[in-house]
Amino acid sequence: MMTSSLPRLAVFDMDGTLIDSLPDLAACASRLLVHYGLSPITPDLVRPMVGDGVAMLVRRLLAHAGPAATGIDPTEATTRYMADYTPHSTDLSRPFPGTETMLARLRADGWHMAVCTNKPVAAARHILKGLGLEDWFIAVGGGDSFAARKPDPCPLLGTIELAGGDPRRAIMTGDHHNDVACALGAHVPAIFARWGYGQPDMEAGATVGADSIAEIARLAGELIPA
Description:
By secondary structure, this protein is an alpha/beta fold. The chain folds into two domains: 148 residues, HAD superfamily/HAD-like (Rossmann fold, 3-Layer(aba) Sandwich), CATH 3.40.50.1000; 67 residues, Putative phosphatase, domain 2 (DNA polymerase, domain 1, Orthogonal Bundle). The protein has nine helices and eight strands. It holds the Pfam family HAD_2. Keywords: Hydrolase.
């Protein structure tokens, strides 16, 4: 099969790219800290902690708490966080405005779509289903789906394979340097989502940046023409 005859595949990060999940992530973070007798935390402080998976988020929360968190087992705290977060992960989270319009345009243009996230795959599917987005995606790769997580290219390449795609006909969109790095490692064009949670310097290395979600379909078509 010629590469040009394969469907084009648009792969998306989830938190901070498709979904504004910070409100639930921060609410769960505060509940975790309060459980351990620590002070709650604001969403603005949680924002830069997001993007490297739940275990790293919890470690950053405990580090933020300082000496008062000494002696707390990060593994136990991570398990507690996920047990609380999963059933509450769509209480406050919502797709970013324009997400479904963008996905509909991509589908109309013949694209297939998939999600590659560092969030555990069961939690990712739960959120996508709860927010009515699940049916847009033919594959979901999570932080526990493969041998490594982003920024390693393994999960992106694995998600592309799950979707029946080819890296030469795929793009990656995300708001974190992990998304850019995994795309570079997989030799896949990267669109940096400037509307997300990542700092501006995380765009370094991306093929192109997008100021709004409404630009994605156009940029995708420019990167990989039909």
